[in-house]
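Researcher: We're teaching a course module on how sequence relates to structure. For the next exercise, students receive a sequence and then see the predicted structure as tokens, so they can try to spot secondary structure elements on their own. Here is the exercise chain.
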Amino acid sequence: MFIGHFAPAMVAATHPKAPGLGTLFVAGQLLDFGFFGLALVGIENFRITPGITRMVPLDLYDMPYTHSLLGSGIWAAGFALLIWLFTRNRTGALIGGAVVLSHWFLDLLVHAPDLTLAGSPPKMGFGLWNYPVVEMPLELAITFGALAFFIIKTRAISGTSKYALGLLAVLLMVLQSVNWFGPEPVVADAAMKWTGLLAFSVAALAAWWAGGTRRLKQP
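Model: And here is the predicted structure for the students to work with:
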């Protein structure tokens, strides 16, 4: 799953005490920020294995610190603590941590068995990446359904809101299209890892702009 990880961020952003949408976009992909960062220095590892799933050739064989449930929980707690230290907003901190943790459960739906509870077997994953006719509409539905929910629950406070939202929607669609239909990587090199980090960062920046142009509607 790629852009589907931003769906919890957009839903969570409609809570009155939630952090900003840009912050929540970082939360939604924090585990992958961590994974690619750790992979760059050789602490976690993956390789390209064509055919390992029908949709994704990534063999994610070594990621105990970011994609075990225990590791995910630690990243979530750390992110929540950062939010609380900067804002003293306990509810917002819990929301941010929950969005971080949602990443593991969404990955559980699509990954081949490569997720763990605490870094060692059994490995888990329901493998929807082997069923594109299910995974592709599911990812689009949860992502753009969440974006629609965010739009319904908020109001524009700037004339640039429609442009910011349009950019965010187009960017998400482009990123997912490249992920699905672009050339398959042939090697898990540094360029691929930096590209992933850049994609997550650009999405978060677009969300920051879009979120800044809107406010929650009054009940």
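Model: If you want an answer key for the exercise: The chain has a mean pLDDT of 96. The longest helix spans residues 190-212.
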